[in-house]
């Protein structure tokens, strides 16, 4: 499987949530310590402000060109720990299906610069006064692609998907401050002051109190069992993924402790050599496969079981 095939497989902007995921990853790649997002119009209008490295005027113009990436690239790099981006197609894709403006300033520039893009074409640009960082505003997502617009779900569904994306990103990046507003109402806010504060801010102090550490992250006590699997958060090399194998390993470690229909709360940070990941599965699909599922399953299950059954009365 060639890198270009893997790349081509992905639809980057499937919906507002997947677009926001890409935008957040760009802000994180730019070393931002603060990321603020405001979403309106069912997710079709999005404003994201970061305080990261920013772009020079030249880089700003380049940023919406397809396959313009300042990051990359080898097959292994897809799951590396250095950066989220590697395809250079997120901004180009978003730009082509929206009305967008990007304002940015980097440390070397005295002023910032802003471009206005309509369906992929730059229609205006100007100098702006601005702090270091990047501010991207997307309006009328899918205005020129009625078929995709038709596939947007209800406002509630789109907003819930967006909340989930921001929550999972905030949880993995607890030293970055996140703020999400939906229709100008703040629904999620973290201070960027470490793991413990982040858990309290995203969930509650009670959840924090009932989390215990083990080799591959944190697991919840019997006091915070959930009624869905949605509270098993899995990060492979900092990327949020759905992994059936890891989910099963966690649940199996609890085994007889679990009542029917009850699932553990767990946050798994699992780092693995990218060579051990089957890259035929597209990263943007969030689903991951390992070259050796059994090893991963046994390792996580036995590590969790050890701690879980030792420390609990
Ligand atoms: P990729 O992330 O794969 O490189 P993108 O299309 O997401 O591709 O972004 C294109 C380029 O635009 C990035 O490589 C980066 O140089 C620049 N860029 C995008 N967003 C930001 C941001 N928030 N801050 C600084 N640079 C950015
Ligand atoms: Mg990117």
From TrEMBL:
One of its GO terms (molecular function) is mismatched DNA binding. Keywords: DNA damage, DNA repair. The keyword Repressor does not apply. Residues 199-309 form the DNA mismatch repair protein S5 domain. The keyword Lyase does not apply. One of its GO terms (biological process) is mismatch repair. GO terms for cellular component: mismatch repair complex. Belongs to the DNA mismatch repair MutL/HexB family. This protein is involved in the repair of mismatches in DNA. It is required for dam-dependent methyl-directed DNA mismatch repair. May act as a 'molecular matchmaker', a protein that promotes the formation of a stable complex between two or more DNA-binding proteins in an ATP-dependent manner without itself being part of a final effector complex. This is DNA mismatch repair protein MutL. The lineage of its organism: Bacteria, Fusobacteriati, Fusobacteriota, Fusobacteriia, Fusobacteriales. The gene is mutL.
């Amino acid at each position: 499987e060639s890198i270009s095939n893997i790349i081509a497989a992905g639809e980057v902007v499937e919906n507002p949530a997947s677009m926001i995921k890409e935008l957040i990853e760009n802000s994180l790649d730019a070393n931002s310590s603060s990321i603020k997002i405001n979403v309106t119009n069912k997710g079709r209008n999005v404003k994201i402000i970061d305080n990261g490295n920013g772009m020079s005027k030249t880089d700003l113009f380049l940023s919406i060109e397809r396959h313009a990436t300042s990051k990359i690239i080898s097959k292994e790099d897809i799951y590396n720990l250095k950066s989220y981006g590697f395809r250079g197609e997120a901004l180009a894709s978003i730009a082509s299906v929206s009305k967008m403006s990007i304002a940015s300033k980097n440390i070397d520039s005295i002023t910032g610069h802003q471009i206005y893009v309509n369906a992929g074409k730059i229609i205006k640009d100007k100098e702006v006064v601005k702090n270091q960082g990047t501010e991207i505003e997307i309006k009328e997502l899918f205005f020129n692609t009625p078929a995709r617009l038709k596939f947007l779900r209800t406002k509630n569904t789109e907003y819930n998907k967006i909340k989930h994306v921001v929550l999972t990103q905030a949880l993995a990046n607890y030293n970055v401050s996140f703020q999400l507003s939906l229709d100008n109402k703040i629904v999620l806010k973290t201070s960027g002051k470490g793991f413990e504060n982040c858990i309290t801010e995203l969930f509650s102090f009670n959840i924090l109190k009932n989390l215990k550490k083990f080799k591959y992250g944190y697991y919840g006590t019997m006091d915070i069992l959930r009624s869905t699997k949605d509270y098993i958060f899995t990060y492979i090399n900092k990327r949020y993924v759905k992994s059936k194998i890891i989910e099963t390993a966690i649940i199996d470690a609890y085994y007889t402790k679990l009542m029917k229909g009850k699932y553990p709360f767990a946050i798994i940070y699992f780092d693995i050599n990218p060579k051990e990941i089957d890259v035929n599965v597209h990263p943007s699909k969030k689903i991951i496969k390992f070259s050796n599922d059994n090893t991963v399953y046994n390792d996580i299950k036995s590590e969790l079981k050890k701690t879980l059954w030792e420390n609990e009365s």
